[in-house]
Design goal:
CATH superfamily: MoaB/Mog-like domain
Distance between the termini: 16 Å
Helix content: 40-55%
CATH architecture: 3-Layer(aba) Sandwich
CATH topology: Molybdenum Cofactor Biosythetic Enzyme, Chain A
Largest sheet: 6 strands, mixed
Radius of gyration: 15 Å
Length: about 160
Amino acid sequence: MPSFRAAVLTVSEKGARREREDLSGPALASRLQDAGFRVEARAVVPDNEEAIARELIRWADEESLDLIVTTGGTGFSPSDVTPEATLKVLDRETPGLAEAMRLSSLKKTPRAMLSRGRAGIRGATLIVNLPGSLKGALENLDAIIEALPHGLEKLRGDPSDCGG
């Protein structure tokens, strides 16, 4: 597998104020590293559309990262705005990733249908929203992680056939 550069963005008001330890961010970074990704950035931002979008744009446009995963802000709470911030910065959505995560999670809990997480492409960067809970974030990443390298190779311009 080619080496892909990744980042993890934790969206949490309490985490940004250092009132709560970020458990999902480090766990996701570790899982990505175990899968062969180079995690080059991690950050915690509050539940604020502008703050989320600013970090996604910076990592995609300035740092040219291959993959950004977010954790948190995908539920029904009025402060959960990660999907909206993500949609603002995407060039194209990749609905199959979000669908696969929800389908996988629905096998474990009916509450999975309440996740509003999105996934899509900005330039040559794939951005994926994951739930904020440690368990949910890891389960959702596990549902898609095997498909990510192929998608990222395509984003890099790999002309090989997608069949197989």
